[in-house]
Amino acid sequence: MADIKYDFGLVGLGVMGRNFILNVADKGFTAFGNDLDDEKVNALIEEGGDTQKVSASTDAAEFVNALSTPRKIMLLVPAGKVVDAVIENLLPLLDKGDIIIDGGNSFFTDTDRREAFLKEKGINFFGAGVSGGAKGARRGPSIMPGGSKDAYQHVRPIFEAVAAKYDGEPCVAYLGPKSAGNYVKMVHNGIEYGLMQLTSEIYDVLKKAGKLSNEELHATYAEWNKGRLQSFLVEITSEIFEQKDNLTNGDLVDVILDKAKQKGTGKWTSQNAMDLGIPVPTIDIAVSMREISALKDERKKADELYNRPTPNAINKTELIKDCEQALYFAFIMAYAQGMHQLADASKEYGYELDLGEIAKIWRAGCIIRAALLADITNAYKANSGLQNLLLADSFVEKVQSTVVAARKLVSYGALNGIPLPGLSNALTYFDAYTSERLPLNLIQAQRDYFGSHTYERLDREGIFHTEWEA
After folding, report:
1. Average pLDDT of each block of 10 consecutive residues along the chain (470 residues)?
2. pLDDT tens digit string along 329-375?
3. I need a surface site. Which of 48, 142, 164, 220 has the fewest CB within 10 A?
4. Could you tell me if 131 and 235 lie in one domain?
5. Domain count, the chain
6. 411 in the same domain as 372
7. Is residue 249 part of a domain?
8. Catalytic residue among 40, 72, 185, 208
9. Could you tell me if 32 and 144 lie in one domain?
10. Residue 99 pairs with which residues in a beta bridge?
11. Domain check: are 141 and 220 in the same one?
12. Residue 192 is a catalytic residue
């Protein structure tokens, strides 16, 4: 083993890490893994089958010495203190010019801090968002690297080989300096939160208003996946309705507890959007709904206290048509909000992001991959300075033809006690963004009245204050 120098190193041999390193080995590169757990090391060696191509060790020094220079070391470990601990452990063993890649969901300011620290040591560091889950890591994920452009060139052949392909093009691209990669992955996950919330709300309407069986729900989502709603999330949703439960022999979806957990990336997206002053209400409410879902015991008590309406039944055929249109409309709103945030963050943090390129590498491999992303890619290619997707000529008809169905469902949900916050917020975002005049003039008057905060006027330039009469 001492004579072999491996092309690529990876720390963290959980399911995601093991699958990613095996993917690297499958694509003709030699790879060496590292983990503190003997069982994970042995599992990789056994599954790899040929230690000349892929091997591993629990010893950090052996791991580092096994790699060709400049060493290319990817970390797939939990975000936070663990990343810092791994870097601290590796640092004394590395040489100037070596490369560390954080492939986890690290918060972007942590990436900036680590890059600055390692730069002083002569070590290249960049964050690379990896989307696609464990299966994607094995078969081809979408990869979002950012950091040193020169250092990326050493890793580029490997990343382009292992990434998912869309029409033969790898779903990976250098996105920008500093924490650009981790930031884009964060917003990717925020959009993911929104799409998942929207998909679940439409399921709720179909079930409660249309009385669709799980078999019918499977068929409906499967049919949608053949059209403009084609996406990973719609595809797996259709499959979920087919899954049987081994314990009850019933449908598994019906016995899963309605409490959704989260790892924080959606919350980070929402919080940072507020810091930037960019509205992402569909993402915001998706985070809030997971928090509300966690209040299961309180929800159960509240349900017993209040008389809730019994939903009126709707013709299935009409409902399915409206739901397809409303979901498509809301998907556009979720992507528009996320892309708007990326555009503003690019200016604020100096990322120089190419939004068309980002949409392009999301077309395959990642969780939010969807047919719609091809249209989004084309919209930003046509106008790289596009401020918001809703301002793209190519999206006007898509929205105009589906917004009526969204209005119908939001109205129905409100009257029948079915919570549709994701869809409602998507519609409110659209109505507010496309309104030349909003009632915020009154809020400015209120602020000036009680706090002398001043206001601007429609009819002349300048800043004004009024001594309001009591």
Report:
1. 82 94 95 95 90 93 95 94 95 96 93 95 94 90 93 95 95 96 95 97 97 97 97 97 94 94 85 96 96 95 93 94 98 98 96 95 92 96 94 97 98 97 98 96 94 95 92
2. 999 999 999 999 999 999 999 999 999 999 999 999 989 999 999 99
3. 48
4. no
5. 3
6. yes
7. yes
8. 185
9. yes
10. 72, 124
11. no
12. yes
Range of the domain at 470: 438-470
The Cα 154–Cα 188 span in angstroms is 25
78 CB-side CA count, 13 A: 5
Is the CB of residue 172 less than 8 Å from the CB of residue 160? yes
Q: Which of 69, 57, 64 is nearest to 33 (CA)?
A: 57
> Within this chain, do residues 174 and 198 fall inside the same structural domain, yes or no?
no
Whether residues 254 and 349 fall in one domain: yes
Give the list of residues 6+ apart from residue 268 with CB closer than 8 angstroms, or none. 107, 186, 190
Between CA 302 and CA 410 the distance in angstroms is: 23
pLDDT tens figures, 121-172: 999 999 999 998 888 899 999 999 999 998 999 999 999 999 999 999 999 9
Query: Could you tell me if 151 and 261 lie in one domain?
Result: no
SS3 410: helix
- Domain containing residue 469: CATH number: 1.20.5.320
pTM of the model: 0.94
261 is a catalytic site residue = no
Assess whether 324 and 403 both reside in one domain. Answer: yes
